[in-house]
Amino acid sequence: MIQSNGHTASASPIEPARDQQGSLECVTTDQWQEFVDSRSESTAFHHGRWLKLLQQHYGFPLRIYAWKQAGEVVAGLPFLETRTLFGKKMLISLPFSDNLRALGKDVTSLSGLRQGLQTTNFGRHVCVLNKTDAPLGFCCTPSGLVRHELNLTRSATDIESGYPRSLAQNLRKAYKANLQFKIRNDAEALEIFYRLHIKTRRKHGIPVQSCRFFSRLHQQMIVGGLGFIATASHCGHVVAAGVFLPYQQTLLYKYAASDGAALDLRPNDFLVHHVMKYGVESPMTKLDFGTSREIEIGLRRFKQKWGAIESTIYNDCLTGRIASDQGDSSAMSIARAVIRNSPSIACRAAGKLFYPFSA
């Protein structure tokens, strides 16, 4: 996956890049959070609690690079240090975070950040990478991923008027089945979601992150008001659930799960429809559906039918290269088949082994 670009670097400490306009420095989480709170375009993925969650759970060292002027942070981008299966170091902005844009007060600030990062010695890292739909413009190539974003500044009625006929029919079916929608933040709701999540991932042959990760997500994000679990229930049983991370103006749809035996009731459509209405009534201005692989045509259609706009995610590499997602390798296809045909414990075990190296 990783290809070297021939860049050689010493293991000496990183020196800040300086010029007359500002300086690039590593800042603390508190300093970063103060800046993040001041930017309306920031998302839950920029938040210090999300960084802390990934740092603590996976043991990834955190570096937050900030462009400072007159001692004030005016732009920045956080990175976590990961390792490949062969032990080589990478700096990724940001693992398990779909899309992370650099934050800046203005174009000039972002230009300063780019200049500072471009002249920084990153030591023995085979790749320094930002996964984003708004690259700063280092060595930028399509990642094979796309994201979808729905504008929530319109009324719910206006958004619904754009629903395709098939979606409107699905919602009528869900209402006829008397599905019930709730927004929850309790531990039991997360446990229910996680059980469905394991089933959903196993069905698709995808490893699942550990129960401990989701417990930390609940403690550090949801309990503190940076997340909630949305559920759709039928006859008292949850048949679809999603984990959402709201912050500033963006509502992130981070995790989704459903009961395969109840899909005929259209619980996923029912859940997203009600979350959309919740978002319209809140201070949120956009619903971010997260990323999909370009080859996942069905998933992309599901997101687009709500009126969400698709954009390309790029691999913006400061050093090194990383291959785009062109589909499963033969080994991954075999692994998916094994997970689909094994007990759920195999799905969880695969996640424990896989995720620390999959960032």
UniProtKB/TrEMBL annotation:
InterPro entries given in the database record: Acyl_CoA_acyltransferase, BioF2-like_GNAT_dom, PG_Glycine_Bridge_Synth
Domain BioF2-like acetyltransferase: 166-294
Top-rank taxon: Bacteria
Annotated region (Disordered), positions in chain: 1-23
Compositional bias (Polar residues): 1-11
One Pfam family linked to the record: Acetyltransf_6
Protein name: FemAB family protein
Organism field: Novipirellula artificiosorum
